[in-house]
C-alpha cells in the first residue's frame, strides 16, 4: 500500500511541513504544539480548494439529476413490470439519452469523494509512519525527519496525541476527545445531507418512490453510523482532518444553497422572496420585478424557453388535434402531461428517446441478419457433409 501511495504521501508530508513553517513564522512555537494541528487543518483547506472545480461540477450534476427526475420517472413508469431483456435495454438506452440531453451522469456526483479517498488513505499512512520515523525504524518521509516526527507525536488536541486512536489511547481523556471528534464528524455529515434534502431538492424529487430520494435517505442515516464505527481506528490527526473537511463542506454547501439553489426547492423560493423584498426596497415597479424574476428563472433553467416559429406552429397543431380528440382519448391521457413542455426534437424530427429506440431496433435487425447468415452457413455445411458421405 505504501508503495502505491508513496508519491501522494510525499506530497502530503511536504504540504504539512510547509504549513507548519508558515504558522511558526506567524509566531506559534516551533516543535511540538499547535502548529502541527493547524497544519492538518491547513491541509484540509488546500485539498478542498483543489477539488473545488469538481465540487462545482458535482453541484451542477446533482441539480440536473433532480431536474430530470420527472423524465426518468416517466421512463421507469413506462417499463414498470417489464422484466424481459429487450425492455430493460430499451429503458437503459432511453435513460442514457435523457442524461446526455441534459449533460449529466449518475456518477458525476461521486467525483469529489472519489478524488479525496486516496488523499485520506495517504494521510492515514503518513501519520502511521510517524512512530516508525521517530524511533528510527523507518527512513525519513520527504521533509519529515526523526526530530519532526518526534515533535508530531508529542503534539496534542485537548490532551489527545495526534498519532493515537481510540484503541491505543493511554488515558480516558484521550478516549473522550476522540469520542467527541467522532460525534462531531457524524453530526456534521448528517446535517449536511439533511440540509441538502430538506432545502435544496425540488418537491417533485421528495417523493418516497423516487430512487434518488431513497439514496439520499440511506446516505443521510447510513454514513454517520459508518463514521461512528470507523472513528475507533482512525488517529486523532485523521479525525481532525475529517472534522475540518466536514465543517468546510457544511459551510460551502450552505453558501451554495443560499445563493445558487435548485429551481423549485425550498431554498429557491426563499431566495426569490429575498430578491423580491430587496427589489421592492429599491423602488422597482411590479412589472420590472416580474421581468427580473423571469430572467432569473431562465438563467436557472426553471422556465421553458420560447419556441421558434416552425415549432410554435407544430405545437399549435398538436394542441388543436388534442382538443378535437379530447373526449375520445380522455381515459388514456395523463392530466399531468398537459402542463409539460414539448419534447425537444432535432433536425430529423425525432426526440432523443426516439433516436435511442431506432438505434436499438437497427442493432436488433443487424443481429437478426447475422444470426440468419450463421444459420444458413451451418445448414450449407451440413448439406455438404451429407453429400460427401454419399
Provide a descriptive summary of the structure in words.
The model is unreliable at 302-309 and 323-341 (pLDDT under 50). A hairpin with a 2-residue loop joins strand 1 and strand 2. This protein has helices spanning 2-25, 34-50, 52-67, 69-78, 85-102, 111-135, 146-154, 172-199, 211-230, 236-259, 266-281, 286-300, 309-324, 326-329, 352-389; strands spanning 156-157, 160-161. The longest helix is centred in the C-terminal third of the chain and has 38 residues, at 352-389. With 390 residues, it is mainly α. Strands 1-2 form a two-stranded antiparallel sheet.
Tally of DSSP helical segments: 15
- Structural category is mainly alpha
Mean pLDDT metric: 77
- Percent helix, as a range, is over 70%
Order of helices and strands: HHHHHHHEEHHHHHHHH
What's the gyration radius in Å?
A: 30 Å
Q: Give the total of beta strands.
A: 2
CA-CA gap between termini: 68 Å
User: Looking at the structure, what is the overall shape?
Assistant: extended
Low-confidence stretches: 302-309, 323-341
Largest pleated sheet:
2 strands, antiparallel
Amino acid at each position: 500500500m505504501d508503495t502505491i501511495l508513496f508519491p501522494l504521501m510525499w506530497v502530503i508530508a511536504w504540504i504539512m511541513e510547509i504549513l507548519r513553517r508558515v504558522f511558526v513564522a506567524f509566531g506559534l512555537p516551533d516543535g511540538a504544539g499547535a502548529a502541527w494541528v493547524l497544519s492538518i487543518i491547513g491541509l484540509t483547506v488546500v485539498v478542498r480548494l483543489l477539488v473545488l472545480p469538481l465540487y462545482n461540477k458535482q453541484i451542477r450534476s446533482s441539480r440536473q439529476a433532480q431536474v430530470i427526475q420527472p423524465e426518468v420517472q416517466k421512463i421507469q413508469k413506462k417499463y414498470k413490470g417489464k422484466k424481459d431483456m429487450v425492455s430493460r435495454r430499451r429503458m437503459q438506452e432511453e435513460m442514457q439519452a435523457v442524461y446526455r440531453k441534459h449533460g449529466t451522469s449518475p456518477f458525476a456526483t461521486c467525483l469529489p469523494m472519489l478524488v479525496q479517498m486516496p488523499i485520506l488513505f495517504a494521510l492515514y499512512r503518513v501519520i502511521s509512519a510517524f512512530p516508525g520515523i521517530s524511533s528510527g525504524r523507518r527512513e525519513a518521509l520527504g521533509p519529515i525527519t526523526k526530530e519532526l516526527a518526534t515533535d508530531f507525536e508529542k503534539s496534542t488536541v485537548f490532551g489527545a496525541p495526534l498519532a493515537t486512536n481510540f484503541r491505543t489511547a493511554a488515558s480516558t481523556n484521550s478516549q473522550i476527545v476522540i469520542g467527541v471528534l467522532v460525534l462531531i464528524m457524524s453530526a456534521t455529515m448528517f446535517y449536511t445531507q439533511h440540509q441538502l434534502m430538506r432545502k435544496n431538492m425540488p418537491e417533485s424529487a421528495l417523493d418516497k418512490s423516487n430512487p434518488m430520494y431513497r439514496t439520499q435517505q440511506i446516505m443521510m442515516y447510513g454514513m454517520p453510523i459508518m463514521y461512528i464505527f470507523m472513528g475507533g481506528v482512525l488517529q486523532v490527526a485523521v479525525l481532525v482532518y475529517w472534522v475540518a473537511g466536514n465543517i468546510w463542506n457544511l459551510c460551502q454547501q450552505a453558501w451554495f444553497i443560499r445563493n445558487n439553489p435548485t429551481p423549485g426547492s425550498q431554498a429557491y423560493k426563499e431566495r426569490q422572496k429575498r430578491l423580491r423584498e430587496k427589489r421592492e426596497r429599491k423602488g422597482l415597479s411590479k412589472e420590472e420585478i416580474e421581468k427580473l424574476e423571469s430572467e432569473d428563472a431562465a438563467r436557472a433553467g426553471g422556465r421553458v424557453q420560447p419556441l421558434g416559429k416552425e415549432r410554435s406552429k407544430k405545437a399549435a397543431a398538436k394542441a388543436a388535434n388534442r382538443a378535437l380528440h379530447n373526449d375520445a382519448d380522455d381515459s388514456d391521457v395523463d392530466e399531468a402531461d398537459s402542463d409539460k413542455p414539448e419534447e425537444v426534437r432535432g433536425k430529423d424530427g425525432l426526440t432523443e428517446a426516439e433516436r435511442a429506440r431506432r438505434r436499438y431496433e437497427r442493432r436488433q435487425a443487424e443481429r437478426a441478419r447475422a444470426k440468419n447468415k450463421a444459420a444458413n452457413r451451418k445448414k450449407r455445411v451440413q448439406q455438404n457433409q451429407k453429400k460427401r458421405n454419399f
